[in-house]
């Protein structure tokens, strides 16, 4: 039974013999690295990089449901990619624009 499942995976149109399998695998690496970057201070987060990660995630999560065969691994990694990019952008924006106002309010008191 395990052999037939392994053979079915191997011969699947989105299986390990195709780019449809490996592209999301490498994107998982980018998503994990972006998640690990949440330990960095916000000043070290790059706007262009996070905009690219977010845009890639949003755009390809839509189009990964249109291609045939449906590649749910690609869809999942793009949702995670968009989520981590949005999180990093929100950290950076909060740090760059809202911390100054909070510091000013505290200084007045």
Automatic annotation (TrEMBL):
One Pfam family here: MPC
Top-rank lineage group of the source organism: Eukaryota
Membrane topology recorded in Swiss-Prot or TrEMBL: Multi-pass membrane protein
Keyword tags: Membrane, Mitochondrion, Mitochondrion inner membrane, Transmembrane, Transmembrane helix, Transport
One GO BP: pyruvate import into mitochondria
UniProt-annotated location(s): Mitochondrion inner membrane
InterPro entries: MPC
Transmembrane segments: none
CC terms in the record's Gene Ontology section: mitochondrial inner membrane
Task of the protein: Mediates the uptake of pyruvate into mitochondria.
Annotated family: Belongs to the mitochondrial pyruvate carrier (MPC) (TC 2.A.105) family.
Record-given protein name: Mitochondrial pyruvate carrier
